[in-house]
Design goal:
CATH class of the largest domain: Alpha Beta
InterPro entries: CoA-transferase_III_domain (IPR050483), CoA-Trfase_fam_III (IPR003673), CoA-Trfase_III_dom3_sf (IPR044855), CoA-Trfase_III_dom_1_sf (IPR023606)
Organism: Scleromatobacter humisilvae
CATH superfamily of the largest domain: Crotonobetainyl-coa:carnitine coa-transferase, domain 1
Strand order of the largest sheet: 5-2-1-6-7-8
Keywords: Transferase
GO molecular function: CoA-transferase activity
Order of helices and strands: EHEEEEHEHEHHEHHEEHHHHEHHEEH
Pfam family, one: CoA_transf_3
CATH topology of the largest domain: Rossmann fold
Helix content: 25-40%
Length: 398
């Protein structure tokens, strides 16, 4: 708990979303101080509550009904259970929306119209409302009615075409990223859109509808790969851990494992060569500049691999860090949370939980000096705050 001022103090958010992209946005807004009320299905709740194992255990060590997945995107919120298929439930949600500054939802296109909870209806009732819709393919276009999931979008949006081992290598083939990155990125874009819309509303009094599509976000976030394609006329391909524009910038074997070498400029390459005892490489016209190294990648990488296996990962990291060459280990998650930098930054946090007492989590990475992120609540139990929220927001008695 903290008494520091909150960046979004006074902002009310009605979160009708579930799974990851929408809840990630809601959690970020809640971390920044917004009062986020999550509306869930009675008896079931957010889909991710059942996406286990693993499951949370209560204070007595007994397994609860909530999967670990749910806890990654729902802290600092309050949970209300309302059946929106019931007319009385629809009326309650409409009343909550009229008290809110922001509504988040990720139903299929048109899915909330039958309940009178769509953006057109609610914006007509409250013109200053910020209404954010997250779907797989957006509100328009030939795919608008399709359901969209992160894995599907990683494939359709091009990410898997540049992720995985290169053709001709053992294990070659397209590969998804190890987390639902498209959902996460969509949640971040949604947060930016909501904050921009709130700033617009504060200036003009005008609310608006935000239309976010996972496919749009995935294509937008291919960054240099799309630039390489659109400007360079090339179709990027899978390269394993190698980089299409920088060499050497990938993993290398060591005497006891592997390490990452991330050489960002010619000066760093020269320093690496000195540490490796191969200063002649930095003077070789094939390797002297990054452009030359990219062109002669197939010749350079085997030479580097022959050199890196001569020392342990720790020995390389100590030597290269002292020389100012970016490098690092490839950590498992247990090693991540044991890393002294991760510990110093306080990335593992402990949150309160009604049944478990406490539950571990990961800190919000935003560090604000005047209005810091706060962790007032752990992820809520299903319907834990129904009576509280209806009383506070609507004046409804027991």
């Amino acid at each position: 708990m903290t008494t520091s001022p909150r960046a979004l103090q006074g902002v009310k958010v009605l979160d009708l979303s579930r799974v990851l992209a929408g809840p990630w946005c809601g959690q970020l807004l809640a971390d920044l101080g917004a009062d986020v009320v999550k509306v869930e299905r009675p008896g079931a709740g957010d889909d991710t509550r059942s996406w286990g194992p693993p499951w949370l255990k209560d204070a007595a060590g007994e397994q609860t009904r909530d999967a670990a997945y749910y806890f990654c995107a729902n802290r600092n919120k309050r949970s209300v259970t309302i059946d929106i298929a019931d007319p009385e439930g629809q009326a309650l949600v409409k009343r909550l929306a009229m008290e809110a500054d922001v509504v988040l939802e990720n139903f299929k296109v048109g899915g909330l119209e039958q309940y009178g909870l769509d953006h057109a209806t609610l914006l007509k009732m409250k013109p200053g409302l910020v209404y954010c819709s997250i779907t797989g393919f957006g509100q328009t276009g030939p795919y608008a009615q399709r359901a969209g999931y992160d894995f599907l979008i990683q494939g359709m949006g091009g990410l898997m075409s540049v992720t995985g081992r290169a053709d001709g290598e053992e294990g070659a083939g397209p590969q998804k990223v190890g987390v639902a990155l498209t959902d996460i990125l969509t949640g971040l874009y949604a947060t930016v859109g909501v904050l921009a819309a709130l700033a617009h509303r504060d200036r003009t009094g005008e609310g608006q509808h935000i239309d976010l599509a996972l496919l749009d976000v995935q294509v937008a976030c291919l960054a240099n790969q799309t630039a390489n394609h659109l400007i360079g006329g090339m179709t990027p391909r899978r390269m394993g851990n190698a980089h299409p524009n920088i060499v050497p910038y990938q993993d290398f074997p060591t005497a006891d494992g592997d390490m990452i070498l991330a050489v960002g400029n010619d000066g760093q390459f020269g320093k690496f060569c000195e540490v490796a005892g191969k200063s002649e490489w930095s003077r070789d016209e094939r390797f002297a500049t990054n452009a030359a190294r990219v062109k002669h990648r197939a010749e350079l990488i085997p030479l580097l691999r022959q050199a890196t296996v001569m020392r342990t990962t720790h020995e390389w990291i100590v030597a290269l860090e002292s020389a100012g060459v970016p490098c690092g280990p490839i950590n498992r998650l247990d090693e991540v949370f044991a890393d002294p930098q991760v510990i110093a930054r306080g990335l593992r946090i402990t949150l309160p939980h009604t049944m478990a007492g406490t539950v571990p989590g990961v800190a919000n990475p935003i560090r604000m000096s005047a209005s810091p992120v706060a962790y007032d609540r752990g992820p809520p139990m299903l319907g834990e705050h129904t009576a509280e929220v209806l009383r506070e927001w609507l004046g409804v008695d027991a």
